[in-house]
Design a protein that fits this description.
Elements: H1 3-29, H2 36-43, H3 47-53, H4 57-77, E1 85-87, H5 97-104, H6 106-109, H7 124-136, E2 137-141, H8 150-169, H9 176-188, E3 191-196
Antiparallel strand pairs: 1-3, 2-3
Pfam families: TetR_C_8, TetR_N
Protein name: TetR/AcrR family transcriptional regulator
GO molecular function, one term: DNA binding
Length: about 200
């Protein structure tokens, strides 16, 4: 392994520790009260290390938020390929990889429940789901009416994120597989199948 590869892995690990400390501190004291001193102390680094990667708390916030936004989109698409036709009746508890990703990252997604949280965070989940629906999915309605307008997909995105947020608020009371089946059952009430028009990234 080269020195550059070692440094890259170390950088990824250090930034991950800083983000984890940051998330934990938001839970403890609220976003507006977290300082860089708090972050480095919690992560067991020094301020020099922090400033090596970030200009300030805002830059750390933006990177974390953008990273998770892209992961929401990626995990929604991971299991699918361009041109694939999916029969909704054959979807199962593992069809929604996003649900499992949320469950594995409870610390971050519990930030959606905090009043003093990352600015603008509340809209990230429905917006990311909407982008995926708009750009990648074509649904076939059970009654042959169109369900692929922007309005339909906004409705689906906000409805889906609403179910997910209720699950988060209830302390992840259902297994990821159980909430996935509930979402599939809702989807099945108005769509018979869907086609992936763009491949996952």
């Amino acid at each position: 392994m080269t020195t550059a590869e070692n440094l890259s892995k170390q950088s990824i690990r250090t930034k991950k520790h800083l983000k984890q400390a940051f998330i934990s501190l938001i839970h403890e004291k609220g976003y507006s009260h977290v300082t860089i001193t708090d972050i480095v102390k919690k992560a067991q680094y020094n301020r020099t290390t922090f400033y090596h990667y970030y200009v300030d708390k805002i830059e750390l916030t933006e990177e974390l938020q953008k990273e998770m936004y892209e992961m929401i989109k990626q995990k929604t698409m991971n299991r699918y390929m361009k041109g694939q036709r999916i029969n909704i009746e054959k979807m199962d508890a593992y069809s929604f990889e996003l649900i499992h990703f949320i469950y594995q990252n409870k610390g971050y997604f519990n930030l959606f429940l905090i009043n003093d949280t990352i600015p603008g965070l509340y809209q990230d989940l429905p917006n990311a789901i909407f982008e995926v629906l708009k750009d990648n999915f074509v649904f076939t309605a059970k009654d042959e009416k169109t369900i692929n307008s922007v309005e339909h997909k906004l409705y689906m995105a906000h409805g889906t994120s609403g179910v997910i947020m209720d699950w988060i608020r209830n302390g992840y009371d259902l297994k990821p597989e159980e909430i996935s089946i509930k979402l599939i059952n809702i989807l099945h009430t108005f769509a018979s199948n869907l086609v992936i028009v763009n491949a996952g990234k």
